[in-house]
Structure formats: structure tokens, C-alpha cells
Amino acid sequence: MRNSELRKQRDNAKARDLKEFTGGNIYVDAKGNLVINTRDQQTLTIAPSVARSMIPTLMEFLPERELPFPEEFLLKLNTSIHFLGLSRRLQSLLYWENLRTVEELFHRSEEQLRRIPNFGNLAWIELLKALSDLCESFGLDYTTVVNTLKERSKKEK
């Protein structure tokens, strides 16, 4: 057997053991964390950076579900706001409000953002354009994305 086949068999065995241990209750939350609920009512949360390497192996054990957005878009949501191409001024305003990821921006309403000191019309227009462009690049509507993410976060709470 080749190394890749051995590695795949070993990974599949680990995933089967994990499924037995958890009772099959494994899912990915809105922030990209891998969440595992064990039989003894404990919850294990694995960060996206670690989970990303585990997900391909675990996908066959996860229940089939339809993703609300393309997988690439979901990965983009967990990226830093710096990748949106915003001005330094706007990045600084968002940084001081502890808004670090793209998804966090989608969860904030216009009223919440306008309460940020020095966040005016130009900042709102720039941010709205960047988020709309991101949605359009995946063929999605901005308002649909905002509403769907808000519904998902309510369900998780």
C-alpha cells in the first residue's frame, strides 16, 4: 500500500472512533469551529485552523445538510477584515470596536455601526460597497446574506 492509502485508512479509523465516542453529534458552527458533543454531555470546540485539516476526513460522518452559502463564501466569512480592501481609517475604526472578521461585520446593523465614534456616511458607504461586492462575487444578495446569518446566530443561541 502507498503512504496516502495508509494515511486515509488511519484517518478513517480515527473518524469512526470519534463518531463512536460522540454518538455522531459533530457539526461546524457559524464561526467555523468544529463542535463535538460527547455522550457524557461535554462539548469540545476545535478552532477553524485545526478543524480545517480534520474536516475532509469527518465529512463522511457528518449528517447531510444543505449549506446556505457556497463553501468558499463561508470560508471568506472567517477571514480578517483587512482582505476587504477597506481604507486604513475605516479598518482602524472597526479594529477599535473589536470587529476582526468579515462575519462580525454582517452581524452588525447600520445603527450599531453608526454609533461608533467618527463612523459617518462615507465610512458606511465604503463598508456597504465592500460587503456587497463580496456577496456579488459569489452570486449572492447582500440582504439575503445578512438575514440568513442573523437567523443562524439566533438558532445557535
Brief summary of the model shown:
The chain is mostly helical and 157 residues long.
3D shape? elongated
Strand content: 5-15%
For this structure, the CATH topology of the largest domain is DNA polymerase, domain 1
Structural class: mainly alpha
Strand order, biggest sheet?
1-2-3
What is the level 1 CATH name of the largest domain? Mainly Alpha
Largest sheet: 3 strands, antiparallel
Q: From the coordinates shown, what is the CATH architecture of the largest domain?
A: Orthogonal Bundle
Radius of gyration: 19 Å
Instruction: Return the string of H and E elements.
Output: HEEEHHHHHHH
Provide the domain count.
2
Query: Would you tell me the overall average pLDDT?
Result: 75
Count of DSSP E strands? 3
Number of helices: 8
The CATH homologous superfamily of the largest domain corresponds to 5' to 3' exonuclease, C-terminal subdomain
Cα distance spanning the termini: 47 Å
Which regions contain 5 or more consecutive residues with pLDDT less than 50?
none
Portion of residues within helices = 55-70%
